[in-house]
Design goal:
Structural class: alpha/beta
Radius of gyration: 21 Å
Function: Catalyzes the reversible conversion of 3-phosphohydroxypyruvate to phosphoserine and of 3-hydroxy-2-oxo-4-phosphonooxybutanoate to phosphohydroxythreonine.
Distance between the termini: 35 Å
Helix content: 25-40%
Subcellular location: Cytoplasm
CATH architecture of the largest domain: 3-Layer(aba) Sandwich
Strand content: 15-25%
Largest sheet: 7 strands, mixed
Subunit structure: Homodimer.
Number of strands: 14
Bound molecules: 4'-deoxy-4'-aminopyridoxal-5'-phosphate
CATH superfamily of the largest domain: Type I PLP-dependent aspartate aminotransferase-like (Major domain)
Keywords: Amino-acid biosynthesis, Aminotransferase, Cytoplasm, Pyridoxal phosphate, Pyridoxine biosynthesis, Serine biosynthesis, Transferase
Strand order of the largest sheet: 2-10-9-8-5-3-4
InterPro entries: Aminotrans_V_dom (IPR000192), Pser_aminoTfrase (IPR022278), PyrdxlP-dep_Trfase (IPR015424), PyrdxlP-dep_Trfase_major (IPR015421), PyrdxlP-dep_Trfase_small (IPR015422)
Number of helices: 9
Number of domains: 2
Shape: globular
C-alpha cells in the first residue's frame, strides 16, 4: 500500500492508525455483523460509542461540566448563521474580529441575524498580521465576541486567547482545534468543522457553555436550536454516525499519543522546521505573515518566481507530497500541518524544497 505525505488544508490527512482500524472493522463492527454506518443511532452499541467519544473529547480538552458538547451537521458555515440565531435576540449586536477569509465569511453570514459590529479588522494590512488587541472597539453590551483563532487560508493564528471581559467569546476553531491544550473555560462557544483535526467532513463539533443554551434567540425551527440538540444528546434527528465514529477513533488516537500537550509540542516542532526552511532560503521561498501571527497549522508560501509554481507542484506530487497548491485568494503554495501530518512529512517537504531550489536556481 502506498500513502503520500498529505498537506491538504481540508478535508485533510487522517491518522493512518485511525483509517486502518476503521478498515479492519468496516464490515463487522464490534462483532455485530454490520458496519457502524448500518446501525441505528438509537441502538445500544452506537449510543455507547457516541458517549465514549464525548468522554474522550472531554478528557482531551478538560471540558468542564458546565459546557455541553454537540456533534452536529452542516459544517462550520452553517454555524456562521446558527450562532447569531441562537445567541442574539432581536435588535442585539455582536462584535466580530476580522482577521482573514473565514472571519469575513462569518461576518457576512451573520448579517441577516444580528447587527454586526466589526470591532477590528486586519483587511487593510492584507490579513498578514493580527489586528492589535488595543485597537479592538468592543461593545460591553454585545451579545458575544466572535473571532477565528486560526485563519486557514491566510495562515494567521492568534498565539493567545484574547481577553474580552464578561461578553461570551465565540471561536471558530475549525483549523486548529485539538492542536494544543486549550482553556475551554475562557469560551462561551467553540466550534469546528471536523475535516481537519477531527475526522471526515459532514460533522461539526460545538462546545457551548450551558447557560448560553437558555438564551432566547429568535423563533426558529427546533433543528436550528442548540438547546434542543443538547437536550437530545445531538440526536434530535439522525446524526452523522460515520463521522462521529471516526471522530471517536481520532480522540482515542490523540489520547494514546499523549494528549494535547504532546500534540502541541509536535505541532510546534513541525511548524518551526518549515518556517526555518522558508526563512533560511535566502528569499527563494517567502511567507508573508508577521512572525508573531504565523499559523502552526497552515503555512502559505510563495516562490521567488511564480513561473516556478507549476514545476514545483508537478515535481512535489511526483515526490509523494500531496496538495501543496495554495488557495486562489493568496496564490503560491500552502502546507497544512494538522495533527495527522507527522514530522517525517515536514522533513520530506523541506528536503524537497531545498533540492528544488538547487535544481531550479
Ligand atoms: N472556518 C474555517 C476556519 C475553515 O477553515 C473552514 C473550511 N476550510 C470553514 C470555516 C468552513 O467550513 P465548512 O466547509 O465545514 O463549512
Amino acid at each position: 500500500m502506498s500513502r503520500v505525505w498529505n498537506f491538504s488544508a481540508g478535508p485533510a490527512a487522517l491518522p493512518l492508525a485511525v483509517l486502518e482500524r476503521a478498515r479492519d472493522e468496516l464490515t463487522d463492527w464490534q462483532g455485530s455483523g454490520a458496519s457502524v454506518m448500518e446501525q441505528s443511532h438509537r441502538g445500544k452499541r452506537f449510543i455507547t460509542m457516541a458517549a465514549q467519544a464525548e468522554a474522550d473529547l472531554r478528557a482531551l480538552l478538560d471540558i468542564p461540566a458546565d459546557h455541553a458538547v454537540l456533534f452536529l451537521q452542516g459544517g462550520a458555515t452553517q454555524q456562521f448563521a446558527q450562532i447569531p440565531m441562537n445567541l442574539a435576540g432581536e435588535g442585539d449586536s455582536a462584535d466580530y474580529i476580522d482577521s482573514g477569509h473565514w472571519s469575513a465569511k462569518a461576518i457576512s453570514e451573520a448579517t441577516p441575524y444580528v447587527k454586526v459590529n466589526v470591532a477590528a479588522s486586519a483587511k487593510a494590512a492584507g490579513y498578514r498580521q493580527l489586528p492589535p488587541r488595543e485597537s479592538w472597539q468592543l461593545d460591553p453590551r454585545a451579545a458575544y465576541v466572535h473571532y477565528t483563532p486560526n485563519e486557514t487560508i491566510h495562515g494567521v493564528e492568534f498565539p493567545d486567547v484574547p481577553e474580552v471581559g464578561e461578553v461570551p467569546l465565540v471561536a471558530d476553531m475549525s483549523s486548529n482545534i485539538l492542536s494544543a491544550p486549550l482553556d475551554v473555560r475562557r469560551f462561551g462557544l467553540v466550534y469546528a468543522g471536523a475535516q481537519k483535526n477531527i475526522g471526515p467532513s459532514g460533522l461539526v463539533l460545538l462546545i457551548i457553555r450551558r447557560d448560553l443554551l437558555q438564551r432566547a434567540g429568535r423563533p426558529m425551527a427546533r433543528i436550528f436550536r442548540y438547546a434542543d440538540h443538547a437536550a437530545a444528546d445531538s440526536m434530535l434527528n439522525t446524526p452523522n454516525t460515520w463521522g462521529w465514529y471516526l471522530a471517536g477513533l481520532t480522540f482515542q488516537w490523540l489520547l494514546a499519543k499523549g494528549g494535547l500537550a504532546a500534540m502541541g509540542a509536535a505541532n510546534r516542532a513541525k511548524a518551526d522546521l518549515l518556517y526555518a526552511s522558508i526563512d533560511g532560503s535566502g528569499g527563494y521561498y517567502r511567507n508573508p505573515v508577521d512572525p508573531a501571527a504565523r499559523s502552526r497549522m497552515n503555512v502559505p508560501f510563495t516562490l521567488h518566481d511564480s513561473a516556478l509554481d507549476a514545476p514545483f507542484l508537478q515535481e512535489s506530487e511526483a515526490a509523494g507530497l500531496l496538495a501543496l497548491k495554495g488557495h486562489k485568494a493568496v496564490g503560491g503554495m500552502r502546507a497544512s500541518l494538522y495533527n495527522a501530518v507527522p514530522l517525517e512529512a515536514v522533513e520530506a517537504l523541506v528536503a524537497f524544497m531545498r533540492d528544488f531550489a538547487t535544481r531550479h536556481g
